[in-house]
Design brief:
- This protein has twelve helices and three strands.
- By secondary structure, it is mainly alpha-helical.
- It has a three-stranded antiparallel β-sheet with strand order 1-3-2.
Amino acid sequence: MHELPTNFPDPEVVLAFEPEELAGKLLFFLRERCERGDRTFSIHNLMLETKNSAGHNDRTPSYPREYIERVSLAVSEALAWLQSQGFLVPEPGNESWKLLSRRAKSFQAETDFDQYVTARRLQRDLLHPEIATNVWIAFVRGDYAEAVFKAMRAVEIGVRSAAGFPEGDHGVPMIRRAFNLKDGPLRDHTQQDAEAEALMHLFAGAIGSYKNPHSHRNVSMDDAQEAIEIVLLASHLLRIVDARRTVDGK
């Protein structure tokens, strides 16, 4: 990968990248080659480029020889990550050569790739079973607004069901009735009033901020990290509802 020392002349910078971070850089280097007409790639040849860059010729930027093995290992890890994610796929009829996949070509900028990497950090097994399938699928497809809406709608439905309210009840007023300090069916009477009130506000604020707007209009949600945080909040709230079901036997 002769592009590496050109774009990152300090080898310590390359070694500081996580495999998926370096993979993003390599992906766009390969995109540039593809645009120049190099449609297929050999992993073997790419690794040879890395190892031969030191002293390859006087005009080729290179790293000091003592860094070559470590840089080569970092590049190998990054290329393996690209293949594991389906960004580099075998050329039909010639599996020793690779092509950029359709997904690899769909990224318009490195920020798009970064969003993809961030989205992969949402682990399905961390989510409450109620949202572990449909919310997670929406999320990995990149539909963050849909994932957030479905997660918070699950919270609303869970509260309504646990509180024993009719199907027509919804929204912040219903949440506040469920956790009402005096007679809310989900009010935990072992908690101090201030704590119980804070929990009521937490549920009401989450529904009002993240579920209701998505119910009434198209709300943009382009930040994968923000969406992860909201979905995990919904998962946490659902577990609180489960705990109240257990206590009250509902």
